[in-house]
Amino acid sequence: MLAKLHQKALAASLALLFAGAASAAQAAKPAVDMGLAATSQTANATLILKLRHEDQLENLIRQTVTPGNPNFHRFLTTRQFAERFGATDAQIARVQAYLKQQGLRGDVLDNKMVIHVQGTLAQLGQAFGTSIHTFKDAGSGRTFHRPARPMVLPAALAGTVSAVSGLSNEHQYISHRLAIPRPLSPTATTTFAPQSVQPNLKPSGNPTATGIPGNYTVGDVANFYNVNPLYHRGITGKGSTIGIVTLSNFFPADAQAYWDGIGLVTKPNRITQVHVNGGGAINGGSGETSLDVEQSGGMAPKADIIVYDAPNTSGDFVAAFAQAVSDNRADSISTSWGLPEIFNFAALNVDGASVTDTTDVGNLRAFHQVFLEAAVQGQSVFAASGDSGAYDTVRGLGHDQFSAPLTVDSPASDPYMTAAGGTTVPYSFSFSGGPVESIKRESVWGWDYIQNYFDTNFGPGLIDLFSTGGGGGVSVYWHTPVYQWFTHGIRTSEKHQELTFNDPQAGPTTLLKLPGHFRGRNVPDLSLNADPETGYIVVSTVDGGVINGYGGTSFVAPQLNGISALLTQSLGHRVGFWNPQVYFLQNVFGYGRYSAFDTVRDGDNWFYYGKPHYTPGAGIGTLDVANLDAFLRAF
Fold this sequence. Notes:
By secondary structure, this protein is an alpha+beta fold. 29% of the residues lie in helices and 24% in strands. The protein contains 18 helices and 34 strands. α10 packs across α11, α11 (286-299) packs parallel to α16 and α16 (553-571) packs parallel to α18 (625-634). The protein is globular.
């Protein structure tokens, strides 16, 4: 009897990890149409105008990151981008005239590519040939609005507008952070926790490091990835600006408390907040914003920080990124929010002068144009690759009712985004009196190593940790970018992948079949420690103050953002789009003592294994920041 109770306690403790996924699975049941939404309800939409000369833009981006090219590290201003690649004044005037006819107000950003539109749901529905209804999730009870039928882009806009985002607030993005599962009570003995440390430290310790898994700080990151030589040269991010795009507001005092608490001297009054479309709420996602600022600003303690927060909808996420890029004040930008790429698919059908769309209207395309602008302006952009291993829909839907196809996360999967993956650094562990085991080398992060530990020592079926780990795989939307063409280990998409809903009464229904052998963009690009078991301290008022045992690729994206700020100061100019530069260095110089990268040979993310080359588990590997800095300065 005691053994059964003990097993129940173990299972219940670890099941807390999946509460969010289970709720999402219920919410994913077919929604109930509640009828026409309140016609007077105000909403924001974002129009993405078509780029001019997009092929020339892509070529110019390559030139800005190609050593020896006359345009190497010669980036455009927002005004120059608008003049060369944005919409013409005549095109903008035509769009504005149409919006005015519909009673809508449109504010054009300086890049001449984005128009923020404000109006009522009735006006927006009328303007885009649809009606907007209120829907209620059958499982969660959450209500949202979306078009009741496919949007129709009027002939007046069809030649100018590339995408419309924001007519639906159905999709809410996921924060890519996780915690070590907590015990049921303060006296419970069910915490799975580190027992001792086998550090993976490089020379020159950092005084702000703890050396304790689950309590790591930015000082530990500096030790792991050889950042300290930059600090010793006085490189602290001074003169650079970090941008954070997020979907929750936060308390800036949290970040300062974190920096003060670990003894880090930072630039005073360094945080600026920009609330896009009214800004995000103080809610359960606020801890995400806190950690983003703490990690990025901790890596670059003298950099300025601009936080762009928006409500958690797909349209507002696009709007926040568009604002950050058009403002062009941030030298580097990161986000730690995302959704499975396949949730963003837009089925476009061109019929004469009109375009119809059956989804939330082309968010993949909308993000892509914004990231193109960022790249040509020299803004380095990073996104978390997700925390559901190779099966990104599991955290988005839950795998009790849905199949788990191999999928990647968006916006990390965009070819003009640097995707941040996750590893587990060396440590030793045990659980509830079980044997001590060790991760001896930095490994691809996947909690199947914990699953195997439990199955072996406590019996199979006690817990289900599938598929927690660093996000990675192959896009089935974006083709393999040029910078990955010559990289050993790049994969194509797997065959026989489909998203299926398992209705207990009606049986399985195939919702989407994914293409096999698709030569797609591989994710991630780079990885750093992200396993909550070797995770970090966070200060978050909404989560109770000082908390530990947090991880996820949410940490890696802002860490890379902060590292980019250090490199910006060291180089004396922006780094620009990272991917072509880091893939070139890895392809030409490989791995070794003087390489900018360390290969990740061990572990897996439930499908893709660590290899002595690129792998969709960890990308081209982890960073040696001092060596990367030396290579970049040599150019």
